[in-house]
Amino acid sequence: MSTIGAAIIGCGAIAPLHARAILSMEGARLVAVADSDPERAAQAAQDYGCESVTDYKQLLGRTDIGIIHLCTPHHLHAAMAVEFLQAGHHVLTEKPMAIDVSSAQRMQEAAAVSKGQLGVVFQNRYNEPSIRIKETIDSGILGQLICMKGIVTWNRNEAYYTESSWRGKWATEGGGVLINQTIHTLDLLQWFGGEITSIKGSVTTDVLNEVIEVEDTAHACILFKNKVRGLFYGTNAYSVNSPVELELIFELGTLLLRRDCLYLWKDGHETLLCEPLSTAVEGKSYWGTSHNLLIRDFYKHIIDGREFWIDGNEGIKALEVITGIYTSSEVSGKKWAMDSLKLT
């Protein structure tokens, strides 16, 4: 089996998950890491036994690098992805794929004419509870889905923002809790619910208003084409990082995600359907531990010559939801129609 070379751009907090996934795979080799901070780039290269560069453009067009992992600040994703796609590389970008819908669309347009593929990291779709929920919806075994809710109560303190100058700013992070922390839960809600017809939401800065430009708290009511109503609440203003909570009510039962365990409530009885693996896994449990699964699947699709299923079009859907919440919050009391959103 031939070996596919990889490079990681950005050596911050999320990069080690990507590096260790690459190093654990047969048929994959981490060739290089890139970071504008020379010391951080050099340390990552030493840790992972590869070369380092401080200018990512040095990696453009290199024939020994097939896949680029974008682990950079949000505002850099779009331009970098377009450059590497135009050079014929495959690109796997961390969420959000861009800081706005129009930038994300440029990425997808570049992928459409590239020899390379564009993949977006929504690792929570690979969590076993997420897979079981989606299978239940698609099979109809519990009847029609009626409504659902997602709750994210996490903590991001002042130091989290002050230690990284790009965080907490519209121009570089693209938003706050919505686009950085709760985007995974919003992605799951739209993956479960399907096409969205309208969104009404609001954002506030409840605790960190002296520290950040963006929101630390948000809520929304999402109406889907199939008449399912989704409610969402997310905040970075809690004192701890609690596990994400999901509830999906069907005609014949209810699925509940609590403390990373999925339960079925039916006929007055609660049954445990799945629980977290007892073995150690990469990542923090409260935001999902399936990076390794997604990265391996992306590589398998590339090696097999198949289209990866979480592509730019899928990544754009979550950004559209976030944009809908931001926009409806600006025009308080009004719903934001998805048809209008797609014209922006």
UniProtKB/TrEMBL annotation:
Transmembrane segments: none annotated. Pfam families: GFO_IDH_MocA, GFO_IDH_MocA_C3. Residues 132-255 form the GFO/IDH/MocA-like oxidoreductase domain. Residues 5-120 form the Gfo/Idh/MocA-like oxidoreductase N-terminal domain. It comes from the Bacteria. InterPro entries: Gfo/Idh/MocA-like_OxRdtase_N, Gfo/Idh/MocA_Oxidoreductase, GFO_IDH_MocA-like_dom, NAD(P)-bd_dom_sf. This is Oxidoreductase. It comes from Paenibacillus helianthi. The lineage of its organism: Bacteria, Bacillati, Bacillota, Bacilli, Bacillales.
